[in-house]
From TrEMBL:
Domain of life of the native organism: Bacteria
InterPro entries: Aminopeptidase_N-like_N (IPR045357), Aminopeptidase_N-like_N_sf (IPR042097), ARM-like (IPR011989), ARM-type_fold (IPR016024), Peptidase_M1 (IPR001930), Peptidase_M1_aminopeptidases (IPR050344), Peptidase_M1_dom (IPR014782), Peptidase_M4/M1_CTD_sf (IPR027268)
Name of the protein in its database record: Aminopeptidase N
Cofactor: Zn(2+)
EC number: 3.4.11.2
Family assignment from sequence similarity: Belongs to the peptidase M1 family.
Span of domain Peptidase M1 membrane alanine aminopeptidase: 306-514
Top enzyme category: hydrolase
Pfam families (alphabetical): HEAT_2, Peptidase_M1, Peptidase_M1_N
Length: 865
């Protein structure tokens, strides 16, 4: 499962609105002297001792939640056969489920199944060709079947259930990662929305499968399956496993049967129905197919085409060949997460993977990283599955780390380091307001496990483990882990044991501090030189009342006359000094020179040391760090010279960092710097860098770069065009106005969003008002939230009040009724902008808040107030 965009937006919004005090460290490390060294005070002194200090609880400490153990296995779910058809008008599933089960250990005379919101027609025991009605009780959540007798663990049996599933009748739930949990979704079922196709798709994680078929909906179950889907002609189907039959029916419909012979957890069961174009590929003779909207058929391989190479790379790296029958990937509309690793049939939110030929150069690594992430789940999550949601990082941290592994293999060390940086930042953002153990047995809901801890922190912990044991041991241990636990469930102890068996080292210290305790190191690092010796002091400043004092194996590199020397040290104390013999004062002393630690590090270095670090950097992160720390001093000639050199670096992210560092530059090299930025804006080979250069130029107050912006409106990259429109919005040029207006019919969501910002600041005509209304349906859900709808509201403040009614009504309708959370939030933001001039809207907004059913959206409303 890929973390959803709504989760990211919520995290950003929360970070923007949190009180600054939350970022302050909550305490100092305890003294390094043990308390037992202090003499006991006499009784008379003890009587007047000061009261104990009040314990300050940090804001990120979560409430105490109940213990959530793995589900008790009463029955083993062996096989599921489904025969389903669909009532599109009522959005129902008409199904027959045949389940083969067996008591796990103790004899059983009843079977309890998860089945949410069904109409149950009957339940029968199937014995050969005979069926017998069984009595049952059903409370709309659990179906309790009374068996005809007691069955032992050596006696599998079958029950057949006829039912109607009504997922739209279920109460809305979900999380930041999975925004709804009703299991099965009808998209545009009546075909009335001309902007999207008619589709049906499912999302099973965490317990959504039981919203459309009866099952034991727990991750510690494994079953084979066969699903028959009856659909109207012209629609294609997809499910797990292989298509074993497809037959036309007398009523004109068609029934496709998909069979998976290898067992997996029920939450990984999927189906998708729609008008898809199927682009075929192969790996080692196995089908590899890409299901997309027909208009994206020609670009599908540009997005998914590295999949066979990924399958080969991961198979060899892990020493376990991709184990499943086939591998399909399908893009669907309005998906409730980023993507989902359904076994052999991954589902993606279409906006992540469907692009036109012109959009492709702008998309960067993100689509490929999602493809790698979901593919790697087919080893970590599908082949070997967490026994409980408490152990979710055993699925998600590995999938997250695969994004770095693939970047490293395909694009090199710098690309991998950029992934490391972005993931680290994601976790540290979340850690401002939330710090949990990675493996946490206490949570309010299993949905709470889908956070930046399980993904980004988990991936960084695996990176440290790899660095500690070495590549050969790391991948040998992973092979052992997969081989020993294939087609079964796992927990954190099993991972620790295979690493200990492989390396011979007791690694409880590593797994305890990184997987089972909360927080991360907050380090202060200083160094000095005297008498041919470097003294390096490392202080751990995290609050040791709630986080551990960490054991940190790490590399320190000293540079003398362009020659590096690596020193391997192990930090084990709250305050610790290490000494290294050197022949002279080093040019640079670099702590964590391999950039492996998951930590906040405040490392003192002089300007000369940072300049040396940039020119002698071993990796992207060292270059970026030098640029970032020297950014406030960009007017210094040495620093500005370094930044100008960085503008020609081979790696695009270094060039982009340098462009950002030169924002509002006021130094002596002003003309030279501006010329360099104009060169980058016009000709850098990376569209992200060109766009950033345009944004940086637009930050220079009272300077006119309109010719650069106007020329950029013709750029091949939508990203650059959008940046140019945004720059012209702040510094409108009369001779570019007509050119900007000519973009109104663009197919790019990004350019539409940028135009909305341009008109919010510079528009005032009824024609532009009509444009806002007309193009609203063409804007992505995220862009509606992030800009378009708030910009529309800002624009309406510029036109006469009598003209606003239609726009205000549209915003109110979207805020109340749109099925997408992004859109409701964006419309509400728009209303809040208008409320400054239209006080009557405050009552409307209060009513919207009161009637909102989605708990996450209501929480965001509270943050916006």
């Amino acid at each position: 499962m890929k973390y959803s965009l709504l989760g990211v937006l919520g995290l950003v919004l929360a970070c923007q609105l949190e009180a600054p005090a939350q970022a302050v460290k909550s305490g100092k490390p305890a003294s390094t002297k043990a308390a037992t060294h202090k003499k006991a005070a006499p009784a008379s002194e003890a009587a007047v001792a000061p009261p104990a200090a009040t314990l300050v609880v940090p804001s990120w400490l979560p409430p105490t939640n109940p213990v959530q153990p793995a589900a008790t296995i009463v029955h083993d779910l062996l096989d599921t056969k489904l025969d389903v058809r669909f009532d599109w008008s009522r959005q129902w599933v008409l199904g027959t489920a045949t389940l083969t089960v067996r008591p796990h250990f103790y004899a059983q005379n009843q079977l309890v199944l998860d089945a949410k919101g069904f109409d149950v027609k009957n339940v029968r025991l199937v014995t050969g060709n005979k069926e017998k009605n069984l009595n049952y009780n059903y409370d709309k959540k659990k179906l309790t079947v009374t068996l005809d007798r007691s069955y032992t663990r050596t006696e599998p049996y079958q029950v057949r259930i006829q039912y109607t599933a009504k997922p739209n009748d279920l109460e809305i739930g979900g999380s930041a990662a999975i925004t709804q949990d009703k299991g099965l979704y009808f998209i545009n079922p009546q075909g009335t929305d001309k902007t999207k196709p008619r589709q049906i798709w499912t999302q099973g994680e965490t317990e959504g499968s039981s919203c459309w078929f009866p099952t034991i909906d727990k991750p510690n179950q494994r079953m084979t399956q066969e699903i028959s889907l009856t659909v109207e002609p012209g629609l294609k189907t997809l499910s797990n496993g292989l298509l074993i039959s497809s037959k036309r029916n007398n009523d004109g419909t068609r029934t496709d049967t998909w069979k998976q012979t290898l067992p997996h957890a029920p939450y990984l069961t999927m189906l998708a129905v729609g008008d898809f174009a199927v682009v075929k590929d192969t790996w080692q003779g196995k089908p590899v197919d890409y299901y997309v909207d027909p208009r994206f058929e020609s670009t599908a391989k540009a997005v998914f085409g590295n999949t066979p190479e990924m399958m080969e790379f991961f198979s060899k790296k892990l020493g376990v060949e991709f184990p499943w029958e086939k591998y399909s990937q399908v893009a669907v509309h309005d998906f409730v997460s980023g993507a989902m690793e359904n076994t052999t049939a991954v589902t993606f939110e279409q906006s992540l993977v469907q692009f036109t030929a012109r959009e492709l150069p702008d998309v960067g690594y993100e689509p490929e990283s999602v493809v790698a992430h979901e593919l790697f789940h087919h080893w970590f999550g599908d082949y070997v599955t967490t026994e409980s949601w408490a152990n979710l990082p055993l699925n998600e941290s590995f999938a997250d780390y695969s994004e770095l592994l693939w970047a490293e293999h395909k694009y090199g060390a710098d690309a991998a380091a950029l992934v490391q940086q972005e993931k680290m930042n994601h976790y540290l953002e979340e850690a401002q307001s939330k710090r949990e153990p990675l493996i946490r047995y206490r949570y309010a809901s299993q949905e709470d496990m889908f956070d930046r801890h399980s993904y980004d922190k988990g991936g960084r912990v695996l990176h440290m483990l790899r660095k500690h044991v070495g590549d050969e041991a790391f991948f040998t241990a992973l092979n052992r882990y997969l081989t020993q636990n294939k087609f079964s469930t796992t927990e954190i102890a099993k991972l620790r044991l295979v690493f200990e068996e492989t390396t011979g080292e007791d690694l409880m210290w590593f797994f305890d501090q990184w997987f089972l305790q909360r927080g991360h190191p907050e380090l202060k690092v200083t160094h000095s030189f005297a008498g041919n010796q470097v003294s390096l002091r490392v202080q751990q400043l995290q609050d040791s009342t709630f986080s551990p004092i960490y054991r940190l194996p790490v590399t320190v590199t000293t540079w003398i006359n362009n020659q590096p020397t690596d020193h391997r040290i192990v930090v084990t104390k709250a305050d610790q000094t290490f000494r290294f013999s050197v022949s002279q004062r080093p040019n640079l002393v670099k702590f964590d020179s391999e950039a492996q630690l998951l930590a906040q590090i405040d490392e003192e270095r002089t300007q000369d040391e940072l300049l040396f670090q940039f020119t002698h950097a071993r990796n992207y992160l060292q270059k970026y760090e030098a640029i970032d720390l020297l950014r406030p001093k960009n007017s210094d000639l040495a620093v500005s010279g370094m930044l100008r050199n960085a503008l020609s670096d081979n790696f695009w992210a270094v060039r982009q960092a340098a462009v950002l560092a030169l924002r509002r530059y006021k130094g002596a090299e002003g003309n030279a710097v501006r010329k360099e930025l104009q060169r980058v804006a016009a000709s850098d080979k990376n569209s992200q860098v060109r766009a950033t250069a345009i944004s940086t130029l637009s930050a220079f107050i009272n300077e006119n770069y309109a010719p650069i912006y106007t020329a950029a409106l013709n750029d091949s990259s939508y990203h650059v065009v959008s940046a140019a429109v945004q720059a012209l919005a702040k510094s409108p040029a009369i001779d570019s106005r007509e050119r900007v207006n000519s973009l109104q019919e663009t197919n790019s969501h990004e350019v539409l969003n940028a135009l909305s910002g341009y008109y919010a600041l510079n528009g005032n005509s009824i024609e532009q008002y009509q444009w806002f209304l007309r193009r609203m349906s063409d804007v992505s859900k995220v862009d509606l939230y992030q800009g378009y709808l708030p910009n529309f509201a800002t624009f309406m403040l510029r036109i006469p009040a009598v003209e606003r009614d239609k726009g205000v009504q549209r915003l109110e309708s979207l805020a109340r009724t749109d099925p997408n959370s992004y859109v409701r939030l964006g419309a509400y933001k728009g209303l809040s902008i208008l409320a400054s001039n239209m006080p009557n809207l405050k009552t409307v907004m209060q009513d919207i808040r009161n009637k909102e059913k989605d708990a996450q959206v209501k929480a965001y409303y509270a943050l916006m107030q």
